[in-house]
Amino acid sequence: MPRHALKHYLYIIIFGTHTKAGRAFDIALIIAILSSLAVLVLESVPSIAMQWKTELRYLEYAFTALFSIEYLLRLYCSPKPIAYAKSFYGVIDLLAILPTYLAFFFPGASFMGVIRLLRVMRIFRVLKLVRYLQDSNILLRSLLMARRKILIFFSTVGILVTIFGSLIFVIEGPNNGFTSIPKSIYWAIVTITTVGYGDIVPQTHLGKALASLTMLLGYSILAVPTGIITAELNKEMNAHKELVKCPNCNRAGHDSDAMHCKHCGSELADPDKRIVKA
Amino acid sequence: MPRHALKHYLYIIIFGTHTKAGRAFDIALIIAILSSLAVLVLESVPSIAMQWKTELRYLEYAFTALFSIEYLLRLYCSPKPIAYAKSFYGVIDLLAILPTYLAFFFPGASFMGVIRLLRVMRIFRVLKLVRYLQDSNILLRSLLMARRKILIFFSTVGILVTIFGSLIFVIEGPNNGFTSIPKSIYWAIVTITTVGYGDIVPQTHLGKALASLTMLLGYSILAVPTGIITAELNKEMNAHKELVKCPNCNRAGHDSDAMHCKHCGSELADPDKRIVKA
Amino acid sequence: MPRHALKHYLYIIIFGTHTKAGRAFDIALIIAILSSLAVLVLESVPSIAMQWKTELRYLEYAFTALFSIEYLLRLYCSPKPIAYAKSFYGVIDLLAILPTYLAFFFPGASFMGVIRLLRVMRIFRVLKLVRYLQDSNILLRSLLMARRKILIFFSTVGILVTIFGSLIFVIEGPNNGFTSIPKSIYWAIVTITTVGYGDIVPQTHLGKALASLTMLLGYSILAVPTGIITAELNKEMNAHKELVKCPNCNRAGHDSDAMHCKHCGSELADPDKRIVKA
Amino acid sequence: MPRHALKHYLYIIIFGTHTKAGRAFDIALIIAILSSLAVLVLESVPSIAMQWKTELRYLEYAFTALFSIEYLLRLYCSPKPIAYAKSFYGVIDLLAILPTYLAFFFPGASFMGVIRLLRVMRIFRVLKLVRYLQDSNILLRSLLMARRKILIFFSTVGILVTIFGSLIFVIEGPNNGFTSIPKSIYWAIVTITTVGYGDIVPQTHLGKALASLTMLLGYSILAVPTGIITAELNKEMNAHKELVKCPNCNRAGHDSDAMHCKHCGSELADPDKRIVKA
Lengths: 278, 278, 278, 278
What we know:
The structure is a homotetramer of 278-residue chains.
Chain A: H1 3-14, H2 20-43, H3 46-51, H4 53-77, H5 81-86, H6 88-95, H7 98-105, H8 112-121, H9 137-145, H10 147-172, H11 181-192, H12 205-221, H13 223-243
């Protein structure tokens, strides 16, 4: 096989998802990612780490080797290797192998903290899975369309927790656990999001009244992002419906997961590959 | 009564819901299921179990006998007994009686754990009630239509809790209760779902900042499944509306709970029995 | 003034809301209800109850006398006194005065529990306020329209918490605080509703995994009632819009809070008094 | 430059947002506000306050001087200084500088409480940021349109927590932490909003049953505000769509964030400045 054909063949297997080999590669990669995450998670459990120390380390080296080969092959067969290396997925693929090499080549950097940090940074391998969530474009587009409203929402929440945090700091004071404004703002976030750990709670009557107000506020403003996302999703789903046209009778209005035209029964474009122009 | 007629008569009572006798049978069965659940629940309360040990055991035998007769009758009168036995409800009906027999026939398996497990497995009798929730098809259809979006949503949540759990594990460390990555992921789930038990909470400033981010994220992505379900339900309810036609004037657009045609007032098909073709 | 005219005059003041005197009566009554609730709440605070014992008791007698006069007047001026006495508001009005009389006339029933219960039952006076929430008919109608779906939703939640509660009872057992199935079901409700008190938490690995599943399930099924209510409210608001017609140009499609016709500017019927036929 | 021209020039920079200088002024002001908030927050952390006492105090004086100059300039260049001083932003701008002056000029008022209160009141400077959230008008309009429904919703929640709080007070009593009705109502709010601190929890069986009911109720009524906001936002977004017209072809129906006409491609009015008439 000439070098050019090999490159293209590899490209179809590694980057493509439409051939049998391409799909098999993807499934193998997902299994490898999940297994390497399992190794990382198991390593963090003291009792398991003690007993299986060597085995886990060798497995880790094996996975790093595997992902390194994958990275080099992607660089090799990509028509634009530099664009790939700079893309979101390229950076993630590099980040997935870097920590192990760093820990291996610089054993002198044996501060426990650095080593542990490098080890855990391997968790970002989980982001390699994002590649397989590309169906998520309707969700993402809804979020993007609503990004200005979401920003305003978070600014409002930010202003509210600053005010409520500071007020509770004055009302309750350091003796009741509210030792500083940052800690009080943390309490306000815990309360307004209805998480409610209970590690810091108001003790005075006035503090409880303020806390009640914060909760009721949080409870009701929770409705705002929901309303935003729902309204955007409704719009998006209708837009999508308008854009899918039957190749046979050219009539629109098909659902986003329709496989056949509802008027004439002709097969529609694969729902996964329909692209909606902005 | 000839054997064939008896079988059909039993079939109408046991499987049907449209005759008076069929409805009476259903109500009696629901009462029996709820009572047998009550026996199971009471048995688990130490003070009650001590005092009423024998009574509860005999009640349990009575219910098992009852459900066994029901199961045999269903097998007997069903036109396709094997299909029934293999169906969801057939398996549930068998599971509802099996544990008591196993505990009865194998008293040698007297490991406390096994017995207790068998006893509690009787809880799956509650699933016999699902048979009576068949009106739930609009809800179920909405969930099914949105299953791809829901899967993407859960994958995203999975990736997020893996990353946040690992980061808090590095930041807080075993000394603050975050003893392993699985436990830290458990904390991330407790936080992102806004449950907030408070059994493990961040102690450091950086940990609290990360926790705040997790909460705000959880608070806002909560909006995504709501938006999905609402958008699907809206679509589903409109679709339903289009499909209900008046038998007299043949005009459509009736609400899913309309009893009479809004144009000519003729009675419509019973809302419970309308079937929407997919 | 003849007796008949007086009765009608009183009826307009006490039951009506359209005259100046009627509105003044309503506002005075709301203030009296809130003040009597304040007395009840203050009485329950030990330090205040000690210091102001006599004053609070006399205030309570005064409010009871006031509400008794109101009740008698309502009975007197109502055209159908028995229908009023049997109605929701008639029963509430009686319940608002009964506890004080019972405690007064039967001091022999001085078991602390009974007295305390009677005292707190006065809290149901708060329900007298419901009379003034009649604008809530859109909300209530949406809830009523969706009552079948809401019932199915609660049955599903009931089945889920029974199963999860029983499973955690087997997994964790009495040593970790899950002493009985009712208590374990309580835990499941605390978890699935994302309340998360933290008074009972899973200790084992398997228990934490099950708890994570419960949380994620609760987090996502929370979307279902929201979707139901939103879809019904959307439908209801559109229906409402269709039914409001301009008295001048007879065109429909006005918003539920529009005061003037959007086509010709004529004044529309008062939004509070528009009645939507079911 | 004549005095009149200077005033107008300053007005465009300080109040306007459309010139380069105006935008630069806004960005500088936002940075100053955030920095002064940072100083306030840092001052509340004991360890930092101890070490950087003098520096933080001088920074505080500098920011107060800056905001004072801003306030005086706004008064000077505003065409209607008294209207400005009485407006929401005028009051906020005054509140942002007042506490420091009060603490400075009345050192005799050295009760710790007063000083601390004055210091923390500077937090209201955060409200100066609201000026820059003016894009929020769709959100605000939706909330305003739904204000009657939201009021009814909060009244309903108020009635519910009063009843549930009083019932749990009778059931659990002071021995289990429910020492008074206000405290019990606080518990009911913590529970119904699904915050669930866990500082007060029911101990008796009946109390736990009531708590379960409260949670399930809170879990489902959470759906009501969401439904209200979503329905209003849907309406609002559609209304907005109708009102944006292309200056070239005069056709409507553009999305609220569209920059160009979807029919002829002409540039539309800046989305930030479109005003929707009520």
